[in-house]
Amino acid sequence: MILIRLFLEFFKVGLFAVGGGAATIPFLYNISDKHIGLHILILQT
């Protein structure tokens, strides 16, 4: 189940990341905050 969820999240990132790497950053922050529990402040340090 977790692999399916992970696949869908990264599929969504890849779908909207046509513009470049900067477009993926908000999606990756959202994934890490929602599923892993890491917050933006932790990732920036």
From TrEMBL:
It comes from the Bacteria. The lineage of its organism: Bacteria, Bacillati, Bacillota, Clostridia, Eubacteriales. This is Chromate transporter. The chain crosses the membrane at residues 6-29. Keywords: Membrane, Transmembrane, Transmembrane helix.
